[in-house]
Amino acid sequence: xxxxxxxxxxxxxxxxxxxxxxxxxxxxxxxxxxxxxxxxxxxxxxxxxxxxxxxxxxxxxxxxxxxxxxxxxxxxxxxxxxxxxxxxxxxxxxxxxxxxxxxxxxxxxxxxxxxxxxxxxxxxxxxxxxxxxxxxxxxxxxxxxxxxxxxxxxxxxxxxxxxxxxxxxxxxxxxxxxxxxxxxxxxxxxxxxxxxxxxxxxxxxxxxxxxxxxxxxxxxxxxxxxxxxxxxxxxxxxxxxxxx
Length: 244
Prior knowledge:
The protein has 244 residues and is α/β, with parallel strands linked by helices.
């Protein structure tokens, strides 16, 4: 065999190694499952695996956002879904719409979905998340422009839904297509909408009043917080003092 042919075969073999390593890591990550730490988290995990629409309400540190991010990552790695959609209402800043700010919707919303992106990086790896953001397998969607969309083979996570308006929740919950999971999370204690019914309270009332198939609500308490000691102490203190 010529020297050039030998070099070509060596380079071809080396080119295959990153792909093989990526596939090996994908298999390892797809078998990794985040273990719930409380009984409520175990119930939440079961609901995520069995239902189409899940509403999770509770204070910070209870895993209400982290668990669906890991579940979505697992389904993506096992190729059971094609897209992860991250949504967070853009109402906190004096109810301004994102249209008034420079940049694309994704650039405007990225600071607000960073916690979810961070969980996905932990579950999938940073490089994989960057690739999936680039090719839109992970999509950051503005809630105010959700009308007209329909999601199939997708996992949608809407975080901080207590800052969503009723009309936005109505629009979001009517976007569910085939093989789609919609998880809506929030905390009524941290509500920036001072007038009217907020999105997560409205949706909980709808689910309690009407028979909505394949859906469920879970409410976390302070006892479900698994964050560090001082964070837990503040949550208990604010629960006693009252939330503003």
